[in-house]
TrEMBL record:
Cofactor(s) required, per the database record: pyridoxal 5'-phosphate
Source lineage: Eukaryota, Fungi, Dikarya, Basidiomycota, Agaricomycotina
Protein name per Swiss-Prot or TrEMBL: 4-aminobutyrate aminotransferase
InterPro entries (UniProt xref): 4NH2But_aminotransferase_euk (IPR004631), Aminotrans_3 (IPR005814), Aminotrans_3_PPA_site (IPR049704), PyrdxlP-dep_Trfase (IPR015424), PyrdxlP-dep_Trfase_major (IPR015421), PyrdxlP-dep_Trfase_small (IPR015422)
One cellular component term from this protein's GO annotations in UniProt: mitochondrion
Keyword DNA damage: no
């Protein structure tokens, strides 16, 4: 628990009194990895962003659209779980660059690795990896990313970002689907196929599709955007592939009070999903199904483990490859390294592809050997990722394992869940908060505010009180802290939420 002197120090403008949590069962502290991390938030301006942040955004806006800016940080001064902005405000960051920072800002061990000759030379001699990989490439992958390869997936394609990881998985699926139709990877392409693909016509450009789900988000490139169903603003005015969209369950909370209703809702969605797969075979066959373990940008939407296992088995039954998009849920955020580990998939039921990015800092696709393209240059671009991100990921994975940070995140999530459940049933939250969810998913927690306007007002007041927190969907608040987020941070977070709720 916090010392009394520290609690008194937190009772300053810009930070709420910490709300005591149950004692954690292990002793990891973010100070183990970031010894100079701030002990509390500090807000020194009347608004966040303050005048220097507003001016910095205005300067950027002259050359690049700044309308999506939240704050303009000073990354040189940011430490651990605390983000410092242009005005010197110190904010507890539980959004982590849209769930993209695993360990924190300016972690000494990572800075030390970045100063090594290995890292510097990899940065300054960036290779076209598909054609000119460094001699250490296999070793870097085997000692880094491949140490966390999902069960059953021993192949890896590195990419530049989450969107390109999903696009790569789509391409692999289409190629493997057609290869399976031809009966053998040794069957040569026909002249008609080669000629027609240059005109974007069939049979060389087949009428295949990717099935995604309502409220899902898979990226902003053309294929990934066609599979994205979260917000219209992402898609409006952009030509899209005519790909099917299946319903995703709209669960009712608390889950324990709506067991029968939620089972019926999941059954309805599964039946419609299978019907789409069946009917598509005569029009635009579904080569792949893509799903997030938690539909994140669409509002942190959940479903049961049995629902996801059924999705996988139904896809397999209909010959569609199965892509699990772990761009946001991967790397320990949900209390297991990969969120889909909780689904109970048996041998032979593993996904065909698992995509990743964000907290890994590197990006790519894990897949099975049978989905490797049958010819070179079919999954290829100049960079195919970046060696320095592979080295960064390798060092982060080492630190995650040494400090058992996935288990730490699961335990911290249990503490947060207990405290928020108590807070959200109090009179101060009545009529303001509903649908608290994510229990059992580490720190991957969310809740809905009474309206979109209240949600946005809440986020702004949280920043003014020293906590950078994010939203998703129409009116959801989501937590995306770093893996080093622990009990002391949780006390500040919950206390600040309590304070802001009473002020709304």
């Amino acid at each position: 628990m916090l010392a009394r002197s520290t609690i008194r120090a937190l009772r300053t403008r810009g930070s709420a009194s910490p709300r005591p949590l149950p004692q954690a069962s292990r002793a990891f502290s973010s100070l183990d990895l970031i010894p100079d991390e701030p002990v509390r938030p500090s807000v020194v301006t009347d608004k966040v962003p303050g005048p220097k942040g507003v001016a910095a955004s205005a300067e950027i806006d002259a050359i690049q659209d700044a309308r999506t800016h939240v704050v303009v940080p000073n990354y040189e001064l940011s430490k651990g779980n605390y983000l410092v902005d242009a005005d010197g405000n110190v904010l507890l960051d539980v959004f982590a660059q849209i769930s993209s920072i695993a360990l924190g800002y300016n972690v000494p061990a990572l800075l030390e690795m970045a100063r090594s000759d290995e890292f510097v030379k990899a940065a300054m001699n960036r290779p076209a990896l598909g054609s000119f990989p460094p001699i250490q490439w296999a070793s870097w992958l085997k000692t880094g990313l491949l140490t966390v390869a999902p069960k059953g997936l021993d192949q890896l394609v590195t990419t530049l970002c989450g969107s390109s990881a999903n696009e790569t998985a789509f391409k692999c699926s289409f190629m493997a689907y057609r290869q399976r139709e031809r009966g053998s990877p040794e069957v040569a392409f026909t002249k008609e196929e080669m000629d027609s693909c240059m005109l974007n016509h069939s049979p060389g450009s087949p009428q295949l599709s990717v099935l995604s789900f309502k409220s899902g988000f898979h990226g902003r490139l053309f294929g990934s955007l066609s599979a994205t169903r979260s917000k219209a603003i992402h898609k409006i005015d952009i030509p899209a592939f005519d790909w099917p969209c299946a319903p995703f369950p709209e669960l009712r909370y608390p889950l324990s009070e709506y067991v029968a209703e939620n089972e019926a809702e999941e059954k309805r969605c599964l039946e419609e999903y299978e019907q789409i797969l069946t009917e598509s075979k005569t029009t635009r066959p579904v080569a792949a199904v893509i799903i997030e373990p938690i539909l994140s940008e669409g509002g942190d939407k959940h479903a049961s483990n049995s629902f996801f296992r059924s999705l996988r088995l139904i896809a397999k039954k209909h010959g569609a490859f199965f892509i699990v998009d772990e761009v946001q849920t991967g790397v320990g955020a949900t209390g297991t390294f990969w969120a889909h580990e909780k689904w109970g998939l048996q041998e032979g039921e593993e996904p065909d592809f698992v995509t990743f990015s964000k907290k890994m800092q590197a990006a790519g696709v894990f897949h099975k050997k049978e989905t490797r393209p049958n010819a070179p240059y079919r999954n290829y671009n100049t960079w195919m990722g970046d060696p320095i991100r592979i080295l960064q990921a390798r060092e982060m994975l080492k630190l995650i394992k040494e400090n058992d940070l996935v288990s730490h995140t699961a335990q911290t999530g249990a503490l947060l869940t207990s405290s928020f459940e108590s807070l959200f049933t109090s009179s101060g939250a009545a009529g303001k908060v509903s649908n608290f969810r994510g229990q059992g998913e580490g720190t991957y927690l969310a809740w809905d505010m009474a309206s979109p306007q209240m949600r946005d007002h809440f986020l702004g007041k949280m920043r003014l009180n020293g906590v950078q927190i994010g939203g998703c969907g129409e009116q959801a608040v989501r937590l995306r802290p770093m893996l080093t987020f622990g009990e002391k941070h949780a006390e500040v977070l919950v206390g600040t939420v309590e304070k802001v709720l009473t002020e709304l």
